[in-house]
Amino acid sequence: MGTTVTHAPALEGLTEDSGPPSGPARLVKPPELKRRLRRENLAGYLFMSPWIAGFLLLTAGPMVASLYFAFTDYNLFDPPKWIGLDNFSEMFGDPRWRHSVKVTLWYVVVGTPLKLLAALGVALLLAQKRRGQAFYRAAFYAPSLIGASVSIAIVWKAIFSDDAVVDQTQQFFGIDAGGWTGDPELIIYSLVALTVWQFGAPMVIFLAGLKQVPRELYEAAEMDGAGTWRRFWNITLPMISPVLFFNVLLETIHSFQIFSSAYIVGGGAGGNACGPADGSMVYTCYLYVQGFENSRMGLASAMAWLLLIAVALVTAVLFWSQKKWVHYEEGAR
């Protein structure tokens, strides 16, 4: 008895590139759909073009150029001359460069924790319900709206200078503040005071984190007899540790980038650009002096790339350390 072989009808939508009928069918988009997708993509790239152009011309391009200049002798007036690692060897042997590193590290290690402590302390107070809470939040946040502007740096310099038009009892937090900007040992404290004064941004982030801590945890701890300090140490800190890590990371990076306040408070352009006896000679200030006052763009580029590497290493260490002290909720990581 013979068998009858019937062929299945050809699948609709198959084209020449669909492969043999025995293989899986691959659908091909109609031409009009392809044209529509191309138009939508073109519109998207058109709207993104200002950002792409700005990134290429103002960020990526200068970064690549500075990486090349870091290995050259370049003074803005003559063509760059390749000198290899001479800029880096000169940098490491420069006592003023080593001093700028020391001042910057001191500012980061002292200023950043003090700013975060002030932000967390005020956030803990503002997290409690009280009259005028909205006003206090706005008042404490207001200094951060000014940012590290030139205007506030000029005011800060006037407050801490010898020429401040105040009586002889001028004080700041109970300490005689007159003449800080003229003293090589004290001018760095005025910069720390300025950064601590602008604690509004991390304060708002801390406040948002405190609002997410469940009240049930505090109530259970109170029933067990836990005091204020123990509730803070065992409940508040672990629950807001992701927010704390975020603030530590951002404020540390910002501290390494300090420039305008140190430059203005230190005296501005001229031989006294970074404070008396280089008292406010932070890293970026010395970078500015080498690049724009001494016209040594090659050396300044090498300093900039070394700063980038240092900040990247510090960031990597912070991310590595978070495994030991940052606690995330299950599934939130």
- According to CATH, the homologous superfamily is MetI-like
Strand-residue proportion: under 5%
Give, in order, the helices and strands.
Answer: HEEHHHHEEHHHHHHHH
What is the average of the pLDDT values?
Answer: 83
Low-confidence stretches: 1-19, 164-169
CATH class: Mainly Alpha
Radius of gyration using CA atoms only = 30 Å
Largest sheet: 2 strands, antiparallel
Helix percent band: 55-70%
How many strand elements?
4
Any idea what the CATH architecture is?
Orthogonal Bundle
Overview of the structural elements:
It comes from Streptomyces roseirectus. The chain crosses the membrane at residues 42-71, 105-126, 138-159, 186-210, 231-250, 302-320. This protein has 333 residues and is mainly α. It has one domain: MetI-like (MetI-like fold, Orthogonal Bundle). 63% of the residues lie in helices and 2% in strands. The chain has helices at residues 31-69, 86-92, 95-126, 133-146, 150-159, 187-197, 200-211, 215-223, 228-239, 241-256, 260-266, 283-293, 297-325, and strands spanning 72-73, 81-82, 171-172, 175-176. The strands form two sheets. It has a two-stranded antiparallel sheet with strand order 1-2. Strands 3-4 form a two-stranded antiparallel ribbon. Helix 3 packs antiparallel against helix 10 (241-256), helix 3 (95-126) packs across helix 12 (283-293) and helix 7 (200-211) runs antiparallel to helix 10 (241-256). The chain starts with 30 loop residues before the first helix and ends in an 8-residue tail after the last helix.
